[in-house]
Amino acid sequence: MTEEEIIRPENLVYKKPTLLNDTPMHYCPGCSHGVVHKLVAEVIEEMGMENKTVAISPVGCAVFAYNYIDVDWVEAAHGRAPAVASAIKRLWPDRLVFTYQGDGDLACIGTAESIHALNRGEHIAIIFINNAIYGMTGGQMAPTTLMGMKTATCPYGREADLHGYPLKFTEIAASLEGTCYVTRQSVHTVASIRKTKKAIRKAFENSMNGKGASLVEVVSTCNAGWKLSPEKANQWMEDNMFKFYPLGDLKDTATANDSH
């Protein structure tokens, strides 16, 4: 292959999805949000759903997804994205409807909305970014903050007697009758990025095929909140987050039913 052929856009290993616009991302260096945005945009394009997607963003760092991915967005009140998504999907069942939420939004302020939408089996997909901290508002303790982990509101580390235990929301989701696909992934390596993309694709396809509710948790880093460099944050995540939040599929009834 000649040098000219190598540098042609069609021969590049990475091609930016057309749904991902040119707005400069505000995320901190090393943040997982940008990678997940790219995967979401790629999957929507590959499914040919560019003009039939409605996404719901709530509050927190996740809210800015509407600045970068060129699909129709609805902004929901803090924690209420699954309720809004439920209404939109029922009104327009032919639309691809998903929420994009952080752990503070989904697993704390929106616990009720999230659990009940999943339990009802709403034909929506929820993308759940879990970095174990409130990233936007100053690094406070979240429901997913690990035991002993230091944050702005537990500077000596999370203690069970004082703060309670970390919430494994994805395990709760897997136990609900209305969920068809529940998985926990990450985007810290090339291999993990590929797995996460497949998970998002499966969740979106389940939504369009009326299989029930899907939840894709992405265990992520928050370099600013954790006060670590991107490299050290990834290592800390591997050493600590994955022990409590192990990666892999927790539930996949849609695939199991298809095989019969």
From TrEMBL:
Keywords of this entry: Oxidoreductase
InterPro entries membership: 2-oxoacid:Fd_oxidoreductase (IPR051457), THDP-binding (IPR029061), TPP_enzyme_TPP-bd (IPR011766)
Domain Thiamine pyrophosphate enzyme TPP-binding positions: 66-218
EC number(s) per entry: 1.2.-.-
Pfam families associated with the record: TPP_enzyme_C
Oxidoreductase recorded as keyword: yes
Superkingdom of the source species: Bacteria
Enzyme class at the top of the EC tree: oxidoreductase
GO molecular function, one term: thiamine pyrophosphate binding
Classification lineage: Bacteria, Pseudomonadati, Bacteroidota, Bacteroidia, Bacteroidales
One annotated GO biological process: small molecule metabolic process
Organism: Paraprevotella clara
Protein's name according to its UniProt entry: 2-oxoglutarate oxidoreductase subunit KorB
